[in-house]
Amino acid sequence: MTTVRISIAQFSVEQANPTANMATVAAYAAEAAARGSDLLVLPELWGHGYDLAHADAYATHPHEGLFAETAALARRHGLFIYGSLLGRLHGRPANTAALFTPSGDVAATYSKVHLFRLMDEDQWLTPGEEAVLVDAPWGATGLAICYDLRFPELFRRYALEGAQVFLICAQWPQTRLAHWRTLLRARAIENQAIVVACNRCGETDGTRFGGHSVVLDAWGEPIVEAGTTPVLLTADVDVATVSAVRRKIPVFEDRRPDVYQARVRRVALKDEKGEATP
Fold first, then answer.
1. Class at the top of the CATH hierarchy for domain 3-260
2. What residues act catalytically?
3. For a surface tag, which of 29, 133, 189, 243 has the fewest beta carbons within 10 Å of its beta carbon?
4. Recorded GO terms, molecular function (predicted)?
5. Where are the alpha helices (DSSP H) in the chain?
6. Domain extents for the chain?
7. Half-sphere exposure of residue 198, counting CA atoms within 13 Å on the CB side?
């Protein structure tokens, strides 16, 4: 499979209301299946939102709770589904994304490596410890969550391991929407990879979320992009174009890791008295 039909479910996550959120996801899953989609991507922490003070009560293992209900949806509709929920890592709550297969299996889990202090993740959650690359039917796919987007090292590592696609789920605020859009394009352009990013929309506790979920091609150009309202985006993505872009501009062949890993030669400038500046 080189061409994959992807649906992105952008919606307003209801804080501490898993029943309502699951009903929303179930409706989107049914519609994605009706559109013939292969993959459905959901927002970050779509089950409970950022009710992290109660994370320990919500968090389950990846074969229980909302994870199990999502697996059943994937099986019912014959979809791959990706999004994050409150999982458990070493007995503690974690922001854990799962990729479910059309047979309802958990193909992979990824716990968010970079915890976002501005939303108190570091106070309530334990960080992930590893990057996760999935050999999916459409191509090698790197998994990431929201704040990870600010760390290009993670995405370059994925690309060096052969990733052609990045899946990102998020709850990115409206106030930093320009960062969201810029960083997504940067990750696509610098790694010559397809970026599939699902952000939530709506407002919770005075914080408005930016939406603008998007699928970017390996040139960093949008194939399809949402606005700020709930929507199910759907796009056909030809993963074979990644190889064509990498042949056109051979960035990976022209890398100089010997220089990057060597000592940096630092030069101190002198002021008008001929003394080194601090």
1. alpha beta
2. 44, 112, 146
3. 243
4. hydrolase activity
5. 18-34, 55-58, 65-77, 121-124, 152-160, 177-191, 240-248, 257-260
6. 3-260
7. 30
